[in-house]
Structures are given as structure tokens and as C-alpha cells.
Amino acid sequence: MTELAKDRTSRSTAARGKLYLDLATVIRKRILDGVWEPGDRLPSIPELAAEFDVAVVTVRNALAVLENEGLVWRRQGRGTFVTDQAGDRRWLRLESGWESMLRLWESSKPRLLQVMDRIGSPVLEARDGEPAASYRYMRRVHFSGEVPYAVIDIYVDRGLYAQHPTRFESEMVIVVLESMPNVEIKSARQTLTIGTADVETSKLLEIPLNAPVGEVRRVLQDRDGRVIYVGEAVYRGDLVKLERYLKKP
Q1: C-alpha distance from residue 21 to each of 165, 189, 199, 213 (Å)
Q2: CA 10, 15, 18, 23: dihedral to nearest 10 degrees?
Q3: Ordered DSSP codes for 51-118
Q4: Class of 92-241 per CATH?
Q5: What is the pTM (predicted TM-score) of this model?
Q6: 62-77 pLDDT tens trace
Q7: Fewer CB under 10 Å: which end of the chain, C or N?
Q8: Which CATH number fits domain 3-82: 1.10.8.190, 1.10.10.10, 3.20.20.150, 3.40.50.720?
């Protein structure tokens, strides 16, 4: 049984999602694992269709996704090739220094999906700090180029949001907070857990249903120990890697 067939039989018909995204995931994994290296020519579309027991149009759509991501390039009459830039596509380092994370956030392009003035407060743990009086809620999808890599639910202190609403809705929230002279970020903590994409997440991030994802929760405190920001993000698992330098004692 092929990799794709195993995935297809593990889910009900109603939960499969788009088959071409499943196929793109399988091909992407082969490229990331080095089965096909930069410069290699992939099997022809009919050969891939036969291997995975799918229609030719499904293969074409899957390759179009990977071409949009920069993993492959296609030329009529020549075939499909792995790009020189393929390498390690897990470019998003979730465990890094504050300054490097700010640079990453500054280069991101968020697309605002929803803003709500009243949705209640985020669920806080005792160690998170004291809650703000109220929060502004936003939901966003973040892009690198044209590739969606994260969907995030954001809670930001409503009083701070009111000072720069346009910036908060168009820029990365943490970058805006860091730039505000009246805000001193005392602590920033993030936790990572591994999960799988639900129906809504798979649609927003253009990944198969139940694909692996990284779930990251970030909490920022101001100098008074008040929680001014909570971000609950879901990242595409095929783009994320955990990297941290360890020091010997």
C-alpha cells in the first residue's frame, strides 16, 4: 500500500479534505527527506499518478502547490525538477533569541481575519501574571511570500490597542508593543506542543486534515506583571523546526 493510500484509508470520506494537498504533503516529505535532491527530476505526472493511484489532475494540482512554495520548478516538455533552494524548508525557528524573533516577525505579512471587541479574556495560568482590565481579540493568518505558515488567535491589552489600532491591525502585534515608549516588556514566555490540523486550520494553512502542526502559546508581561499579550498560534509542521544551542556546564 502506498504512502498516500495508507493516509486515505485512515480517514473517513468526509474527513479527507483535498486529495491534492495530501499528495503534496507526501511529495514534500520526500524532498525534505532527501529522496529527491536539488536538481533531481521527479517521475513524470503519469508515473506519479500511477504510483499513488490518483488522477493526473490531482498530481498537477499537488505540483502546483509545491511550485508555489518554491520546492519544485516545471518546464513543459522537460518535466518537474527539485529547486536548488529546496534544502531544509523548515525555516521557522521557534526557539531563538528575542532579537532574532523580532526580525522574523518584522518580515512576516499578517492577514487579518477577524477583530472582536468583546470575546472575554484569554485563559490564564497562575504563572502568566495578572490579567489586564480587558482585551482586544484578533485572528490572523501569517504568510511568508504567498505561503501561509501560521494561524494565530491574539489577545492584546485593550487600552494599549486603543493607542494604535491601525498599527495593531496591520502589523505584528509584538513588534508594535516593543516599539511603544510607554510599554516595558518584563518577560516573554512561549511553550510548544505538537498537535494535528483540524478542519478550519487545514483550510487556512492549505495543509491536509490531521497534518502535524506546532501549537505555540506566547505570553508577555509588562513591568507591573500584567499580561498585555497572549498569542495562541498554530504553525505548519512542515515549515517549523526547534533549534536551540546548548551550553556545556
Answers
A1: 36, 33, 13, 15
A2: -10
A3: HHT--HHHHHHHHHHHHHTTSEEEETTTEEEE-TT-S----EESS--HHHHHHHHHH-EEEEEEEES-
A4: alpha beta
A5: 0.67
A6: 999 888 877 899 888 8
A7: C
A8: 1.10.10.10
